[in-house]
Write a structure and sequence with these properties.
alpha/beta, globular, 255 residues, 9 strands, Formyl_transf_N, seven-stranded mixed beta sheet, binds 5-O-phosphono-beta-D-ribofuranosylamine, EC 2.1.2.2
């Protein structure tokens, strides 16, 4: 199984996945690691493991709000379609792009430009699965639709630091801790158009004990993540994941 990893931070999950590939615990190979910022420590980990890596400077691209940007939207961007899939306006008005502000339009166009650069860097490595490991950017329908087709097994996985559907967003362990939960956890799921809302592949839970600090919770959580993520990717590698339709939503289950 050919993997591409995207990350923004220290890359301890990427490390766990690369280690599992090397030890043979995971029947896969990390072909390429990409980051949205130069300062991502995970890039050094990739370099140390001899894995190709690249950066797409999201900040610089998104901050460029000039109409005549040096980062033009990709020619195949259908902005109305992307806005519709992100529920920014009702379906029957999908073609009326004018009903979202210029600012939003520019943000979406710039983000698609960044995503085009991601795709151009990733696709030559022919990844079977895109693995998000602490990638702090939302991938828009523009990117998702170019990686996976509706109805097929998704090709983008994410790890989230909470027991979804509780606590989506950027601070899962913090939100779990502040809520006073007695159990924390992490979730590996496929990526869809929503925020941390795609079909769940696997979860791991751990106790939160009286006297624990947020740092304790994060440490315990990360230790679970390092085991959970490679094991979920291994299920994918073995072809053991199938999508199952549930009444309200889709779930991914083991075969
Ligand atoms: C992890 O807690 C992951 O769940 C979240 O971001 C963190 C990334 O950590 N999405 P690392 O960069 O893998 O060390």
């Amino acid at each position: 199984l050919a993997l591409a990893i995207l990350l923004s931070g220290g890359g301890s999950n990427a490390q766990a996945i690369m280690d599992a590939c090397r030890s043979g615990a995971l029947d896969a190979k990390v072909r390429i690691v990409g980051a949205d910022r130069l300062s991502a420590g995970g890039l050094d980990r990739a370099a140390a493991m001899g894995v190709d890596h690249f950066v797409v400077d999201y900040k610089g691209i998104l901050q460029d709000t000039e109409a005549s940007s040096v980062y033009p939207p990709p020619p195949d961007l259908d902005l109305g379609d992307v806005l519709k899939k992100q529920h920014l306006f009702p379906e029957d008005r999908a073609s009326e792009e004018g009903c979202v502000s210029e600012k939003v339009r520019h943000f979406f166009m710039r983000r698609a430009a960044a995503e085009r650069m991601l795709l151009d860097a990733l696709l030559p490595f022919e990844p079977d699965l895109i693995v998000l490991a602490g990638f702090m950017r939302t991938l828009s329908p523009y990117f998702i639709d170019r990686m996976q087709q509706p109805g097929e097994l998704p090709k983008i996985m994410n790890i989230h630091p909470a027991l979804l559907p509780a606590f989506p967003g950027t601070d899962g362990y913090g939100d779990t801790f502040r809520h006073g939960c007695r159990v924390g956890g992490c979730t590996v799921h496929f990526v869809d158009y929503g925020e941390d809302s795609g079909p769940i592949v696997g979860q791991a839970a751990f106790p939160i004990l009286p006297g624990d600090s947020l740092e304790d919770v994060k440490r315990r959580g990360l230790e679970e993540e390092w085991k959970l993520y490679p094991s979920c990717i291994q299920l994918y590698a073995e072809g053991r994941l199938v999508l199952e339709n549930r009444p309200q939503r889709s779930g991914a289950v083991r075969r």
